[in-house]
TrEMBL record:
<dbReference type="Pfam" id="PF05762">
    <property type="entry name" value="VWA_CoxE"/>
</dbReference>
<dbReference type="InterPro" id="IPR036465">
    <property type="entry name" value="vWFA_dom_sf"/>
</dbReference>
<dbReference type="InterPro" id="IPR002035">
    <property type="entry name" value="VWF_A"/>
</dbReference>
<protein>
    <submittedName>
        <fullName>VWA domain containing CoxE-like protein</fullName>
    </submittedName>
</protein>
<feature type="domain" description="VWFA">
    <location>
        <begin position="209"/>
        <end position="368"/>
    </location>
</feature>
<dbReference type="InterPro" id="IPR008912">
    <property type="entry name" value="Uncharacterised_CoxE"/>
</dbReference>
<dbReference type="InterPro" id="IPR050458">
    <property type="entry name" value="LolB"/>
</dbReference>
Length: 373
């Protein structure tokens, strides 16, 4: 029996790793895995330049995308399947993964496929678009499940140093409880018997008449931020005293606030790509402000301005001077790894904006902190 570790090295290296098997052959399952990997990675010029040859018999000329998807579903564990699908869509742009109805009916939704749908939905006919929407709905639901609790907990209130009746673990007052029950200390066990646990109360934040205006750059590089902005806006929507706006922009500005409670519909309306006029979007956002001292304007962009950077800085400075909070985010996603124009970002910071990168939970905490003052 061939050592499984050597088989894995052979699959990793392709034909160049044939010596790993000492002249032996792959078994049927391993050969199928090798063929599936050849179909995908055999089109990689960089691998060929490094001598990693991927030229199995059932390569791109004989294996369809649907057949490949069926093979990897049968041959690989779930984590590997998701990685292969992600590489197919993002690295090799095999778009029929999200435009072929037969493939869409079988594929397991994941974030990489959601991004692919957003980039290719304009190519889809109505039948395919209905199937693609399933991917959007399932991935958004997963994101909502993860983020809703985190976002709402930021608004649950600050902990007050007075007794409370809400018996929840997060409100447990350990110090007062121990002091009140020291008379029940048991020397033989070294434990304190707790008869009456004590809890803090929570003071609700005052959220009246606050606006949160999200201005989201929909250029292709901001796809992750667009997705998380839509979900975050939906999580903020409906919180007492918070009125949420969501505006997408490239060289045009589109107000999507009417769909902010439905992130699936919102994302299906987003048109990724194109140029960028950040100043125009910022001016539009400024025009939405009702009460300047109760407004938070969140500009989510890579700050590569295709419009007038002087106008952008001027709009931001005016917002700050009138008392609004301006937050410039170079990324809003779970990794918060930004790539942005640092020079323009610094100019916005000098104008009084908070500039950085955040996860949705961190943005919610920022909003809650300022709203609760």
């Amino acid at each position: 029996m061939t050592d499984p570790t050597l088989v894995r090295w052979r699959l990793l290296l392709g034909e160049a790793g044939g010596a790993c098997l000492g002249g032996g052959q792959l078994d049927e399952q391993a050969a199928g895995r090798d063929a599936a990997m050849d179909w995908l990675y055999g089109r990689d010029d960089d691998l060929r330049k490094r001598g990693v040859r991927r030229q199995a018999g059932s390569g791109p000329s004989t294996l369809t995308t649907f057949g490949w998807l069926d093979d990897i579903t049968r041959l690989f564990p779930k984590e590997t399947i998701e990685r292969l699908q992600r590489d197919a869509v993002e690295r090799y742009e095999i778009h029929d993964l999200v435009t072929d109805p037969d493939v869409l009916a079988r594929i397991e939704p994941n974030p990489a496929l959601l991004k692919a749908v957003l980039h290719t939905k304009h190519l889809m006919n109505p039948q395919v678009l209905r199937l693609a929407r399933r991917i959007v709905e399932q991935v958004v639901r997963q994101l909502m499940d993860r983020l809703a609790t985190e976002v709402r907990s930021a608004f649950s209130g600050t902990r007050a140093r007075r007794p409370g009746r809400m018996r929840q673990a997060r409100n447990f007052d350990m110090v007062r409880t121990l002091r009140a029950n020291l008379g029940r200390y048991q020397p033989d066990t070294g434990k304190v018997v707790i008869e009456n646990p004590l809890f803090f109360s929570r003071t609700r934040r005052h959220l009246e008449q606050w606006q949160v205006i999200l201005l989201v750059d929909q250029s292709g590089s901001m796809t992750d931020s667009v997705i998380h902005s839509a979900v975050t806006a939906a999580c903020l929507w409906g919180l007492p005293g918070v009125r949420t706006h969501l505006v997408a922009f490239d060289t045009e500005v589109v107000d999507l606030s009417s769909d902010v409670d439905d992130p699936v519909e919102l994302l299906m309306k987003v048109q990724l790509g194109g140029g960028t006029d950040i100043a125009r979007a910022a001016a539009y956002g400024a025009g939405l402000v009702d009460q300047p001292r109760r407004a938070i304007v969140v500009l989510i962009s890579d700050f590569y301005e295709g419009g007038d950077p002087h106008r952008l800085v001027r709009v931001v400075r005016d917002l700050v001077e009138q008392g609004s909070k301006v937050l410039g985010l170079a990324a809003l996603d779970e990794q918060a790894n930004p790539a942005y124009d640092r020079e323009l970002a610094q100019r916005l910071a000098d104008a009084g904006a908070y500039v950085g990168a955040m996860t949705p939970g961190e943005l919610a905490s920022f909003v809650a902190e300022h709203v609760g003052r």
